[in-house]
Amino acid sequence: MEMIILGITLLITLGAQSYINSSYNRTKTIMASKHLSGKEVARKILDANGLKHIKVVEQEGVLTDHYDPKNKIVRLSTDIYNNKSLASVSVASHECGHAIQDKDNYFFLRLRSSIVPLVNLASTLGYVAIMIGLIAGILNFLRIGIALEFVILAFQLITLPVEFNASSRALKQITELGIVTADEHRNCRQMLTAAALTYVAAVATAVLQILRLVLIARGRD
């Protein structure tokens, strides 16, 4: 059963990653009719929402895009920052969705940001506890690791509304500001849906990981 759960977890992870990569590779070949780069899309959305103080900067890597709420910066990966594809429009507008959430004091964004230090600690200690529990056969350590895994699962559950809401805001902005056509809007929605499903997959894999560890613990009890 443990191996079956591990196999399902692997399939979910690979499937979600394959889907987002496929959607990204397809939409990055479709040029936006307005010929706006990711940087220009982000700047247009931010300025329209009274967020002129937020910077848009280039970030190394592929799909390393994120909004930095502490420093008030939208960081876009090189391809997204410079290219004028629908992938760039989708990702740039999504990160601006987070910036708008920040402006509006969106509850789940605030909650997620507040527990990041706790989650980082739980992730580190949980890994150590699980390894000690599995290798040394100390059941109490394994139980502690499982408890800490629930902290990580809670974080991932909180992340879901944050990401779905950011995409919803993004699609609204690119429509209202005339950044995309109706056909382009559909492609952007598909791209953002694929991205959102990776977070759903993360929740599913976290649940399966906890289930696998519980089965191991019961087997050693």
Structural write-up:
The chain has a three-stranded mixed beta sheet. Helices cover 76% and strands 6% of the residues. It has helices at residues 2-27, 38-48, 78-82, 86-103, 107-136, 139-176, 182-220; strands spanning 55-59, 66-68, 73-77. Strand 2 and strand 3 (73-77) form a beta hairpin. It is mainly alpha-helical. It has one domain (2-220).
Please tag this protein with its features.
mainly alpha, 76% helix
User: How many beta-strand segments?
Assistant: 3
Shape: elongated
- List SSEs in N-to-C order: HHEEEHHHHH
Number of helices: 7
Low-confidence stretches: none
- Whole-angstrom Rg: 20 Å
Domain module tally:
1
- Helical content band: over 70%
Gap between N and C termini, in Å?
Answer: 17 Å
Structural class call reads mainly alpha
Summarize the structure.
This protein is mainly α and 221 residues long. The chain has seven helices and three strands; from the N terminus they run ααβββααααα. The chain has one domain (2-220).
Strands, helices and their partners?
Layout: H1 2-27, H2 38-48, E1 55-59, E2 66-68, E3 73-77, H3 78-82, H4 86-103, H5 107-136, H6 139-176, H7 182-220
Parallel strand pairs: 1-3
Antiparallel strand pairs: 2-3
Helix pairs in contact: 1-7, 2-4, 4-6, 4-7, 5-6, 6-7
